[in-house]
Amino acid sequence: MDGDQIARLMYLGFLVLAIGGWYVTQNRVSMGKNMQFAVIWGLIFIGAIATVGLWEDIRRDTASSQFTGKNGAVEVPQSPDGHYYLTLDINDVPVRFTVDTGASNIVLSAQDARRVGFDPENLAYINQAYTANGVVHIALVTLDKVGLEKITDRNLRASVNGGELHESLLGMDYLNRFSRIELGGGKLTLHR
């Protein structure tokens, strides 16, 4: 904590003491009932603070759920940040991907590569990818099984990013496996 944060905390503490002291002196007669109300309001306040603090996580988790829609098409609602996120089962391990039409293929982060059975430290990062952030070294891998809802593909080429990548990317090699891709109405629809 820096000095400004400590000063704000002390100010808030003095403010709570002043208001609390005034409240106690004004309501000495029915103190038991007032304490019950104070505890209830305190719990409501803590619940509201927790909800505000977790709101982004709640929105991301509820808004990014995909489902199989009409005619077996996979529908993905647009996330509040404007992106589309798909969860694919890579070798039976769920991996969350950012749909990236600027990426050529499936790109796994080192963390996701490890989760699906690759050892990122022992891969050969001999290829290069040209990204918006410059050139990055990649290692080519083959994914034995890729599942999306009721759709399963086998032996797909992918790459493991040798640089810093926070979330795996789902590029055009995979998206081109669909006969039609629709964007509109706040959702991405993939038809096979």
Quick tags:
192 residues; 4 helices; four-stranded antiparallel sheet; seven-stranded mixed sheet; alpha+beta; 2 domains
Q: What's a quick, concise take on this entry?
A:
This protein is an alpha+beta fold and 192 residues long.
Overview of the molecule:
There is one protein chain. Strands 3, 4, 5, 6, 7, 8 and 9 form a seven-stranded mixed beta sheet that branches. A four-stranded antiparallel beta sheet has the order 1-2-11-10, with no helix packed on it. The radius of gyration is 25 Å and the shape is elongated. Strand 6 and strand 7 form a beta hairpin. Helix content is 35%, strand content 34%. The protein has two domains: 61 residues; 125 residues, Acid Proteases (Cathepsin D, subunit A, domain 1). It contains four helices and eleven strands. With 192 residues, it is an alpha+beta fold.
Instruction: State the CATH class of the largest domain.
Output: Mainly Beta
- Number of spatially distinct domains: 2
Number of helices: 4
Radius of gyration: 25 Å
Categorize the overall geometry: elongated
Low-confidence stretches: none
Quick check: average pLDDT?
86
Helix content: 25-40%
Q: Structural class, from helix and strand content? A: alpha+beta
Report the count of strand segments: 11
- Largest sheet report: 7 strands, mixed
CATH structural fold name of the largest domain: Cathepsin D, subunit A, domain 1
Order of helices and strands: HHEEEEEHEEEEHEE
- CATH homology superfamily of the largest domain: Acid Proteases
CATH architecture annotation of the largest domain: Beta Barrel
Beginning-to-end CA distance, first to last residue:
54 Å
The amount of beta strand, in percent, is 25-35%
